[in-house]
Amino acid sequence: MFDFVRTHQKLMQIILALLIVPSFVLVGVSGVKLFGEDANTIAKVAGYPLTQQEWENAQRRQLDQMRQQMGKNFDQKAFDTPEFKQNVLDQLIAQRAVNAEIRSAHLTTSEQKVQEAISTQLPMLFKADGTFDKEQYLQILAAQGMNAGMHQEQVRHDLALQQVANGVELSGFVPRTVSKAISDFGSQEREVQEMALPVSQFLPNVKVTDDMVKAFYDKNAKLFEIPESAKIEYVVLNTDAVAAQAAVSDQEVASYYESNKKRFTSEEARRASHILIKGEGDKAAAKAKAEAVLAEVRKNPGDFAKIAKAKSDDPGSAAQGGDLDVLVKGSFVKPVEDAILKLKQGEISDLVESDFGYHIITVTELKPAHLKPLDEVKGDIAAEIKKQKAAKLYSEMSEQFTDTVFSDFESLKPVADKLKLKIETMEGVRRQPNPILGAAPFNNAKFLAALFSDDSLKNKRNTEAVEVAPQTLVSGRIVEFKPAAKKPLAEVEAAIKQQVALEEAVKAAKKAGEEKLAAARKSGDAAGFGEAKTISRAKADGINPAAVAAVMKADAAKLPAYVGVEIPGQGYGVYRINKVGQPAEQDAARREQEGQRINQIVAQQEMTGYIDALKQKAKVKILHPVPTIKKQAE
C-alpha cells in the first residue's frame, strides 16, 4: 500500500485534494457523525449532539487544509486563536443546520449522478481503453481509511449540499438597472477647477515663540523618549558550533560508503516503445494482424516509430511513435513490463499478449545501473557523518553549557573556554524583540525576558540557558544598562520649531481656504480657480488623492458645486465642480465583471441569511461553554 502511494505521489496529491476539500465548500468540514449525548456534548442542532471531540477534529481538518494550501508559509500559531476556534464551531453548527434541512426536505441524488460526479472528479483514473481503474481507486481510498461506499456517500452528500446552495444562491440577483446604476457611480467623471493654497504661502508669516516650543515638547513627551537599552554579551550553543568540533576521518567516510553503496547507485533506466494491436472481437484475426506488423518491423527495425504511428491501436502513444517513456516499475501491465526488462537496447520482442491485446515492444534507450565513485560523494558523506556526530555531541555539550552558565554565573568566559564558543556582544538591546533583526538568537522573547529580569539587571549575572530554537541554547548577561530617558529640549528645539511652524501654516491655509470657499459659494463664479480638469475615482489628473475622494463624494445635485479639502501637511484646496457625467467610451468588460461581482455578493448574502434562518429552525442549543475559547479570551 505504501509503495503504491510513494510511486503515485502526483496522482495522490490530486485525489487527496478532492477527498479533503468537498466540492461544495459551505462550512469547511464535511460529514455528519452522530454520537450519543454525554458530558462532552457542547451543543445540539435539530436534536443531534455536537461533541467536543468533533469540534477538535474539525479544527485539525481545517489546519491540515491550510497547511496543504500554504505550504512553507503555514504558521500554526496564526490559527491558534479564539477567533479561529469559534469560527470552526460556528461552521459546524451551520453545517448541522443545513444537513437537518436536507433530511427534512428528503433531498437525494441518484446513483447515476454520483457515478458521473466521481468520473468528473477523477479523470486520471481512466485507462487508455476508456475503462475506469477500479483497483487504483480502491487502493487510494484505502490509503485514506475509506472504502468505495464511504466515498460515494460523501459525494452524494456534497451533491445534496450543492442542490441547496444552487437553489438559494440563484435566487439572489440584482436587476440590470441597479447593476448599471452602481457601475455608473464607479465610473462617473467630474469636471473640476482647483484653487490651491499651499502651506509654503503661509510659512513666512508664522512666528514660533519659545512658549509654543515648550508646550509642544511637554504635550508630546513620548516623541522625545529614549527607550531603555542594554549592551550585552551572549554565547550560543547550536548544531553549527558543535559541528565545527566534530571531526570526520577519511576512514569513516570510506567505511560509510562501503556500507551504503546502494544509496549511491542509480537504478537502471529503460525507455521503451510499443505497437498495440487490440484483441477485441476476433482474437485470431487480431493475432494474425499483429504477426504481420511484427514481420514488417523486423524487416525494417529503423521504421519502428513510423509503423507505430500508422498501425498502433494505442491512442496515447501512437502519435509519439509508440514511445512509452522511461519505465516506472508497476506502471505497465505485468507481461509488458516483464518484456521491457528482458530486452536489450534495439531488440524487437516477440508478440506479447495482455488484456489489451498484442504488443510489439522495443527498448529505445538503456542506461545501466551506476555506482557513483567515492570521490564524487565524499563531501556529502562527510557532512552526513558530521551531522550525526554533532547531534550526539550536542546532547553532551548542552548539559555542560547549562551547568557552567549557572555555576560560573559572574562571567561567560568559563563556558566559552570550556566548550570552545565565541562570546558575542550587542548594543542597544531592548526588552522586546526587534522585527528588523529577525531570528537572531539574542532577539528571542524568552531570552530577553530572562536578560531583563531583576536578578540579571541588578547583579549583571548570566541568564539561565534558554532554548530559543530546536537544538539552540543561549545565555547572556548585561554589561551596561541605560534606563529610559527624555531627550533634552535644547537637542530637539530646532525640529520642534519646524513642526510647530508647519502646523501653524496649515491652520492659516485652512482658515484662508474656508474663507475662499464661502466667498465662491456666495458669488458662484470661477474667479481664482485654475483650468478645468476631468477626473474620476481612477484618474486623478494631478489632483491630490485626498481631494479626489472629497470631490467625488460631494453633493453635485446643483452645479456649480464647491468643496474645501485640507491636504494633510501640504495646505488646503478649494474645488469647483462644473459638470458630472459618464466616460465617452464605456469599458464593457469591466462593467460585465462588476455585474458578476455584485450578483456574487448578493448571492452570498442570501446564503448567509438562509443559513441563519436554518439555525433558528434547528433550535440550536449551546449546552456547555467552550472552555478553550473562554480561557484564551480572558
Summarize the structure.
The chain is an alpha+beta fold and 634 residues long.
Explain what you see.
This protein has 634 residues and is an alpha+beta fold. A 4-stranded antiparallel beta sheet has the order 16-3-18-17, sandwiched between helices. A 4-stranded antiparallel beta sheet has the order 12-5-14-13. The longest helix is centred in the C-terminal third of the chain and has 35 residues. The N terminus and C terminus are likely disordered. It is built from 22 helices and 19 strands. It has 4 domains: 186 residues, no CATH class; 110 residues; 112 residues, Chitinase A, domain 3, CATH 3.10.50; 101 residues, Roll (Chitinase A, domain 3). Strand 1 and strand 2 form a beta hairpin.
> How many domains make up the 3D coordinates?
4
Rg value: 38 Å
Gross geometry: extended
- The largest beta-sheet arranges its strands as 16-3-18-17
Measured as a percent range, the helix fraction is 40-55%
**Structural class per helix/strand content?**
alpha+beta
Helix-strand blueprint:
Blueprint: H1 2-7, H2 9-20, E1 41-45, E2 48-51, H3 52-70, H4 82-105, H5 111-121, H6 134-143, H7 148-169, H8 176-187, E3 189-198, H9 210-219, E4 225-226, E5 229-238, H10 239-243, H11 250-259, E6 265-266, E7 269-278, H12 283-299, H13 304-311, E8 323-326, H14 334-342, E9 352-354, E10 357-367, E11 370-371, H15 374-407, H16 413-419, E12 424-429, H17 445-451, H18 454-459, E13 466-469, E14 472-482, E15 485-486, H19 489-523, E16 533-536, H20 545-553, E17 561-567, E18 571-581, H21 588-617, E19 621-622, H22 627-633
Antiparallel strand pairs: 1-2, 1-19, 3-16, 3-18, 4-15, 5-12, 5-14, 6-11, 7-8, 7-10, 9-10, 13-14, 17-18
